[in-house]
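Can you give me the bound-state structure? Components:
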Amino acid sequence: MPKRKEQTMPEQAVTAQSEDFSRWYNEIVYRADLAAPSPVRGCVIIKPYGYEVWEGIKAGLDRRFKATGHQNAYFPLFIPESYIKREAEHVEGFSPELAVVTHAGGKELEEPLVVRPTSETVIGEAFSDWIQSYRDLPLLINQWANVVRWELRTRPFLRTAEFLWQEGHTAHATHDDAEAETMQMLDIYAEFAHDDAAIPVIKGEKSRLERFAGALRTYTIEAMMRDKRALQSGTSHNLGQNFAKAFDIRYLAESNQQEYCWTTSWGLSTRMVGAVVMAHGDDKGLRLPPVLAPHQVVIVPIYRRDAQRGAVMETVERLRLTLVEAGIRVHVDLREGQSPGFKFNDWEMRGVPLRLEVGPKDVEKDSAVLARRDRLGRAGKSFVPQAGIAAAAEELLAAIQRSLLEDARQFRDEHIQDARSYSELREVIETGDWARAAWAGSDADELQVKEQTGATIRCFPFDAGASSPCVKTGKPAERVALFAKAY
RNA sequence: CGGGGCAUGGCGCAGUCCGGUAGCGCGCACGGUUUGGGUCCGUGAGGUCCCCGGUUCGAAUCCGGGUGCCCCGACCA
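Here's the bound-state model for the whole set.
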């Protein structure tokens, strides 16, 4: 049967994840209307449906930033080239991927302007003006912005030449204050991923090789996608006094001594949209967590002939209002040309958590059908009285949010294994799983693992247990590293 | 930067070897039929065949040059 379906409807089905995950991803991003190809190489157009997911992410983060005392501001897109060069490691890290403006107003510029790849430098320069005294600290700033990094191999949301993100930048009086801020923001990212995106993440510290250019320490949240590859989904950096020294960010302490500030930065990008797609999606398409879904409920009206239309639409409108009043984001599919069956499949592909079907039988029986995206077919359908629709929908949305998180957690835990020897490490990576292993290796050792297995150290997880001999060098190890193939 | 491939309505492609009225599927518009798991029929709109030059009575097709894009090997939220 399925074979015939494929022949008569070749355009309708999405490539199965199991068949070709990467193709599945590319198809679904476009077919679910999240993004569209752009005329500029390496960039994408984020379409309204995809942008609404990003708006959900922004809302969830912005609320948490404000609650912890941060304020939003906006800094220029263009950065004087000399700024980028002020911090040695920073230049080195970013110069290969900079876009530089050399001409403007019909003339060559005196000094080229870099299109920001990140804003530590301009913001550092501003901070040095703004901060005079310990009374000005901590300074807690966030900016929502676009940045440009001239990547060679790009994929929608995961890696594009231009992307949207937030970048937080803070200055503190002491190392410990900066470290506490760095951790607090990492915790906020993890909480957001867990509670809003329904993605369980692993918090940890990056290795020296994977650290942000110019940071003392970089922390990360790592998420597992459905193809078991790791996705770095947010990072938080303790920048020490590196940028403070490069940009002369100093304060007068209570002791009347000039001291350099301790700064941090932390960012989360539109890559998170890709994480939501790849952490929850199935063969039929997206599965959006209710907290972030642009439409939490889609109503599909069903009627056989025009005579039934009026009564059905009247019920649809009444139920829509009830749901809206309950604070639920509802969309009514009014398209005339498509059959209900087509619409069911279409909205399933686009990941809407709940579908409400209203037909003549429902009008007659004062009921309606609710179908959950996370349980396809009959198993996910429930027949509810119209009077209790809002409560039923709210309950189901909460249940879907929980079940997506639980699915993802279970999937992740099933695919992380301990490796006690280097051969075990290789075997684990070979299967596609993540490997947890004791580590005391050098940068060179780390690079060699990458060469030999394709996996990198994603992080040294905070909650990792006791030490044992290093999996690569046999030396006593104090840390446990998490190895995985990554995006 | 090194290797391979492609360029033809909005999208996916055929046609190119062997020159001769530019085609198919999807989508789109209109009319009808249908609608509780991817309806069906009919009509229609839509193309500088990547660009420049050459050969020829005649070029999507042959020849020369150029451009753009995609895929595979070194960096990154």
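A couple of observations. Chain A has 15 helices and 23 strands. Residues 1-10 of chain A have pLDDT under 50 and may be disordered.
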